[in-house]
What we know:
By secondary structure, this protein is of the alpha+beta class. It has helices at 9-17, 23-41, 49-64, 107-114, 157-165, 181-187, 221-231, 266-269, 275-290, 306-328, 335-343, 349-369, 402-406, 411-416, 444-455; strands spanning 44-47, 76-80, 118-123, 135-136, 140-141, 171-175, 190-193, 213-218, 261-264, 294-297, 375-379, 392-395, 398-401, 420-428, 431-438.
Amino acid sequence: MSNLHLKSVEELAPLIESKQLSPVELTKEILKFAHESQPVINSYIEFYDDEALADAKKAETEIANGNYKGMYHGIPLALKDNLYFKDKVTTMASKIHKDFKSDADATVVEKLREAGVVFTGKLSMHEYAWGITNNNPHYGPVRNPWDTTKIPGGSSGGSGAAVAAGASVASLGTDTAGSIRIPSSICGIVGLKPTHGRVSKFGCYPLAWSLDHIGPMTKTVKDAAAMLEIIAGFDHRDPTAVNLPVDNYVNQLTGDVKDLVIGVNEDYFFKQVDTDVEKAVRKAIDLLVSKGAKVEVVSIPSLQYAEWAELVTSLSEASAIHHSDLKTRPQDFGDDIRLLFELGELPSAVDYLQAQQVRRQLKAEFTEIYKKVDVLIAPTLPVVANDIGDDLVDLNGERVDLINNIIRFTGPGNLTGLPALSVPVGFKGNLPIGLQVIGPAFQEGKVLNVGYAIEQFNLMENRKPNILVAK
Length: 471
């Protein structure tokens, strides 16, 4: 079979289940492409070739014996390198933790293993997940598969680039201010930040504990829904985990949006947006309306303070985690994140607590909004990918600060903890554009179904990145 690396889990799983495709054959193909594309996109930090082939053989035997575990059984994928693998190095893409080994798997790793996943390695990220470019001083920049002069987004840039290119069939990312949704939007894939507490963070190195989430980064919405079914659920080892039953998310993907009420917030989510991005998002909304959805314009006053509250919270919590290393070995951090950790020492206790008051008010306003609408729809980002190494980005002809603009629309989802999905809806030139669906707490099924409905419009026109690799 040709171009296996470009296929989604939902395309590959039936072939594996019916024994038309061997997990060993698929794993060899993914590893081959991952190695060949590594000099081009630099998405991996470490490869697990021998273990992957052994696990693929085990999956093949299980399936041959009639023990098929589900959609991800025998599927090869790599994970972001802040998720712990027992007795394996987890670097956090840093110098300080370059030799760190965990004595246990992260809960999400444990659950994926039980589902029969084949792990091909660990993927690059912005150092300690504290950035959105994935321009890493220790491991080199990850490059966007659509244009290798551009950033892949971050901090889960290795995951975004690997999935888009085909170096991993799917992946997991972590998201503190948009780090799943930013690279998903920029790399043209699907990225889901579940509700805070829906997925255990045990065994994930924290960036800012009250804002961190783990979620799927995949080629399709169905792939994301199936992965969420595996990784979701209560875990007593994570003090933020919420004890609620896990839904069957795949079964909720009907594509039916008749009478769905879409909330649109013009004052915040459609302000200072690239013209092509806005057109693509509004086109998708219009297509949903053509299928029976309705639009209601909503007001969320506290959004005007969201960027400040997100920044104070993330800076303070991240700097608390790294305080000791910042005092004793500051030179071992990359310049960009060392500056952020130093800035995080500046907010006062009053600042931090005021930010939490904004957060509480924002949650209350979103709760009220969801009494009138089913989901909110917005651009994932107000811009598309910029050049690697550039701190500014073009916004309708104006050069603006990259980091401030790129997290504007994703940060509120972390402050509120609400589920938020990025789905690709087109291009500006050859650079992908993402649309964000934000839903009520623990209603991932509803959010995913809206994304699935959008996916059926084929706004990406089946385009794939054209990676030129050395054979």
